[in-house]
Amino acid sequence: AMSLRAVYLLRSAAPGARGGAYVGFTLDPERRLRQHNAGRRRGGARRTSGRGPWEMELYVHGFPSDVAALRFEWAWQHPAASRRLPAVSPRRRREQPIAFALRLLPRLLRAPPWSRLPLRLRWLRPPPDPAPGPAPPPHITVEVDPRGLRPRPPRRKATPPAALATPPGDCSLCGLPCEGPDSAPLRCPRPGCPAVTHALCLAPHFLREEPRELLPLRGACP
């Protein structure tokens, strides 16, 4: 299973906190929130120790690697030093830290290289209305779970769909067989469509209108 690489935003619930916020990276949001509220001696961060209680506002996940997630975290923590946010105005005089972090987030999601990644934005509190800043790119999935963090269900071994048990056949684009350990086939998700392709054949087919890009965001079934 793919690791949950999450870049999260905490909101301080302490009286008089004035919108305190903290951005971090974790593989387990529930465990990390407990550490922040337990203090620095139990794994929490220096900046959050003794300043709680903290609530997790949201987290972004779907990063392909730890490096991609950590670079997103760093840019969110240091917007003035990041080359990805050259046009973002600095924090305003009376703007609370949590409001500033929420204003930065949609701009980060629209900045390369993260604007090309299949990221997911998961709200653990009701999202603000109106939203601060532009909407995320349309290919980014927005999830709303105002019930907050809950224990993870036990992992179960995935059962492959019945359709994948049949031989894949030939690639609809190049005509060569879609078989072998290094050529996992891609099938069209529409019911009844017989299209099956190699990933390396489908990517340039989708990128015909964006020849300078490497990762396609969408495309029509061949």
Automatic annotation (TrEMBL):
Keywords: Endonuclease, Hydrolase, Nuclease. Residues 128-164 are annotated as: Disordered. One of its GO terms (molecular function) is crossover junction DNA endonuclease activity. The keyword NAD does not apply. Residues 128-139 have a biased composition (Pro residues). PROSITE patterns: GIY_YIG. Residues 149-158 have a biased composition (Basic residues). GO terms for cellular component: Slx1-Slx4 complex. Transmembrane segments: none annotated. GO terms for biological process: double-strand break repair via homologous recombination. Residues 3-88 form the GIY-YIG domain. PANTHER family: STRUCTURE-SPECIFIC ENDONUCLEASE SUBUNIT SLX1 (PTHR20208). This is SLX1 endonuclease.
